Amino acid sequence: MPGEPPEQPSLAAAEPGELDGRTLAGYRLEHVLGRGGMAVVYRAEDLRLGRTVAVKLLAPELARNETFRKRFVRESHIAASLDHPNIVPVYDAGEVEGVLYLAMRYVRGRDLRALLDREGPLTGAQTVRIAVQVASALDAAHARELVHRDVKPGNVLIAEGTDPDHPEHAYLTDFGLTKKSLSLTGLTSVGQFVGTLDYVAPEQISGKPVDGRCDVYSLGCVVFEMLTGGPPYLRDDDLALLWAHLNDPPPDVRERRADLPAGVGAVLERAMAKRPEARYGSCLEFVAELRAAVGEGRAVRGAFREGPSREGRPPLPPAWAWPVFDP
């Protein structure tokens, strides 16, 4: 009929830009923040509470797989229960019009990928500051038997810190697509590989069961990139890259950055060991050794626990006061 608004495409069939302004499950989608092979993320308004959130819409084919749908719902509930200052909180999860979605805190800042692309290699001090926050988040997840399996610069959000001693606040995101460690394999039940090739652990590639030590490996690769500006293995194609993760020894970080202390290479070599049992037992153990090697000295253990102020500094702000991600 003349004058009637054009019919909107179905959610499952719509291109990302076509959903701007649509309201789904109580969230008004504003614009696309980012996209990947399995999902697209929107800035959105929570119409019930009047707050800005990030809404992730998963690829429609994932909702059609009953096994994936059940796993998504179960693990989203676990992810929502993670209460940690360096984990992006999950507010809501569900299915609308045949598409699975997650609603999360909107973090105002940029991700580590953008930071590295703009600034190149980071200082040792900044690398340690970011790494210890990511490590603390990962160990908290591992304590709940959640393994991230896709630790990469794009999943680390960097917001403004609280004071000159803490100039950046790092958040780890994308826990909604993880799997419980007691039942993990390198392939998802819908036949899609979980993990990014520049940072993927050998046991994920070979399809073996994985635990938190696969995140130690990936964090080691991310730290290598923070220090050098590039991932550890530089290969011409994906097959060669997979082969390198499986078979080639970890590269010497000082060959790309000679000003680093000698001990840094040994720490990264252990973090990126081919066999999980040869790596550090936890992410914070790895970062504690990294901090000592870099010369940052201060102990890592307990650095982000709530409690009385240390060295006369005020305590961290409450969770509701933390900043929120705008690329």
UniProtKB/TrEMBL annotation:
<dbReference type="Pfam" id="PF00069">
    <property type="entry name" value="Pkinase"/>
</dbReference>
<keyword id="KW-0723">Serine/threonine-protein kinase</keyword>
<dbReference type="InterPro" id="IPR017441">
    <property type="entry name" value="Protein_kinase_ATP_BS"/>
</dbReference>
<keyword id="KW-0808">Transferase</keyword>
<dbReference type="GO" id="GO:0004674">
    <property type="term" value="F:protein serine/threonine kinase activity"/>
</dbReference>
<feature type="domain" description="Protein kinase">
    <location>
        <begin position="27"/>
        <end position="294"/>
    </location>
</feature>
<keyword id="KW-0067">ATP-binding</keyword>
<keyword id="KW-0547">Nucleotide-binding</keyword>
<protein>
    <recommendedName>
        <fullName>non-specific serine/threonine protein kinase</fullName>
        <ecNumber>2.7.11.1</ecNumber>
    </recommendedName>
</protein>
<dbReference type="InterPro" id="IPR000719">
    <property type="entry name" value="Prot_kinase_dom"/>
</dbReference>
<dbReference type="InterPro" id="IPR011009">
    <property type="entry name" value="Kinase-like_dom_sf"/>
</dbReference>
<keyword id="KW-0418">Kinase</keyword>
<dbReference type="GO" id="GO:0005524">
    <property type="term" value="F:ATP binding"/>
</dbReference>
<feature type="binding site">
    <location>
        <position position="56"/>
    </location>
    <ligand>
        <name>ATP</name>
    </ligand>
</feature>
<dbReference type="InterPro" id="IPR008271">
    <property type="entry name" value="Ser/Thr_kinase_AS"/>
</dbReference>
